[in-house]
Amino acid sequence: MAMASTPRAIPLTCSGHTRPVVDLQFSRVMSDGSYYMISACKDGNPMLRDGQTGDWIGTFIGHKGAVWSARMSADVTKAVTASADFTAKVWDTYTGDILHSFSHQHIVRGCDFSGDGNRIVTGGMEKKLRIFDLNRDDLNGPLLTAEGHTSVIRNVVWDGARNMILSSGDDMEIRVWDPRTFNQVHSCKMDGPIASMELSADGQYITSTTGKSVYFWDAQTYTLRKQIKTEYDVSAVSLHPNHTRFVAGGSSDLWVRIYDFESGRELEVYKGHHGPVHTVSYSPDGELYATGSEDGTIRLWQTTPGKKYGLWQGDGNEEC
């Protein structure tokens, strides 16, 4: 008796960038069922795409250096980018126009919006965090500045649900800040420089990576819920919205790996990129995940290969 074969995972390739892709973010699901994806790249040209298909929507032109981070406001009307040109820029996602450009004294590595989209937070090589109010008449300087990090800040997240700011980097610590006073209110110690950090889609977990380990922190209490050790240096990790699995990329190989969240067991391994994977992210509906690589491409992978979704026709024979 012939046995049904397991559908082969065929990623969709999103071309357009010319240098390594270092950051990806999906929007929430909009009222019409659509969602979006933004990418940051060392070519200095962040891009906005349809999240389900990867189709290009627009490129934000204006930076004069590598872009290390790109984030969308909750309503996707604005984007913010952090760059090696010593600026953070806020963009109109409909027109591509620059709404604000905030000068810094060094490379900006991380940025994010407040929950209401009226403020941004930035961090980078200066070891300082800054909050800028987009509604102020005088936008020449930050609303608040916080110091405390002793090395480069690589990751910044504004937790809108709890109105807290998370920052991390080479000083091996996730710091939690109250944006009303910009005082540090908590910290999570780790074993080495923190390569990546993100908030899960439902806001329950803070995920972070250090060396060969993946950490999952309770976003309410800031206690460590789970640590999973791998056999390679983990560059980025993203938790599926239903908490059953997570995707990880490595800084020293070409593989994309899927793990069971509860046991930490490796479930799937895929190769599609031609360079190390710098960034990974699950879509808000959990149907796909995106990976960005040193090879300059973004690839979209189905969570359930063979299922009809977006550009995948469901027969496992798509041409990409």
From TrEMBL:
GO molecular function, one term: RNA binding
GO BP: spliceosomal snRNP assembly
InterPro entries, A to Z: WD40/YVTN_repeat-like_dom_sf, WD40_PAC1, WD40_repeat_dom_sf, WD40_rpt
Signal sequence, start to end: none
GO cellular component: SMN complex
Per-repeat ranges for WD: 60-101, 146-187, 270-311
Pfam families cross-referenced by the UniProt entry: WD40 (PF00400)
Annotated keywords: mRNA processing, mRNA splicing, Repeat, WD repeat
Top-level taxon in the UniProt lineage: Eukaryota
Family: Belongs to the WD repeat STRAP family.
Protein name: Serine-threonine kinase receptor-associated protein
